[in-house]
Amino acid sequence: MADDTRTAGWYPDPWGTDDERYFDGSAWARDTRAAGSGGDAAPSSAIVASAAPAGSDPEGPVRPEGGESGPIPAGWHPDPWRLAAMRWWDGDAWTGHVSGPPPAMQAVDVQSERALARWLQPLLVVAGVAQAFGMFANAAQAKWFVEHWDEMVRTGTTVDAPPSGSSFSSLVLPITILVGVLFLVWFYRAARSGWGAGLPARRSPMLATLSFVIPVVNLWWPYQSAMDMVPADDRRRSVIQRWWAMWLLGTLCGLLIIPAQAVFDQTATRIVAGVGAAAMLAAAFAARSVVTLITDTHERRVQTAD
Q1: Phi and psi dihedrals of 99, rounded to 5?
Q2: What values do phi and psi take at 32, rounded to 5?
Q3: Neighbours of 243 (CB within 10 A)
Q4: Does 299 have pLDDT greater than 80?
């Protein structure tokens, strides 16, 4: 695994990415940088060999059956954290020197991710239209809710149902739920693909997906998890920022429709609904671009790894 003929420095990443990876004179480090970014300075982890990651195995490498007892000599062994194919054991502890892509990279299932993306992309637009329509439907009902609020919260009082609106209003929630579930399935598969392709992730694929329904943390965890699915130096990640900003704005407007009616008037309510509808439509189209970006990124990483 070592290369005694190569001097320390930055080289095209042998793991198949578009970045440069640092070679410390004996092994490839985990540190990467954008290709052509300049400078020959070694990364800090190559100047001082890093200690084993948190949660390291104090027993060291797995001994082969029938192997000799006593200290395990320094050498290359399968990476216990599966961040690379091999990691250097210095005789006492795991180091930061790694070699080869993680085994999981060869098992990334981007085909299922792409198959879901094909269905999801047009449905995201349908869901965006439905949510925009729902904004105006909620604005139309806001006046009724404000006028009957006291009756609804008073115990033992019977209140007639609010006006139902058009027949399409009853389809807004089912469409939103259906597309939302499909998006979460795709998101989980995409997170697994990014995880397996060696992209650093702050959370596991399951936790990243569940974060959409966890109160409070769902304001930023899903956004962070989506950003983790694309290399940090990819400028196209701005579409993820745009998607999340529009989604938060649309959600906020949806929550403010009834307060706007209660504090101001029907005109203010319609303005809030209009802004929310525009934000939901923008978020839907941005989400299509996010799905395309992430899926294409994972396909390219697998192709270069092969």
Answers
A1: -155, 135
A2: -130, 165
A3: 23
A4: yes
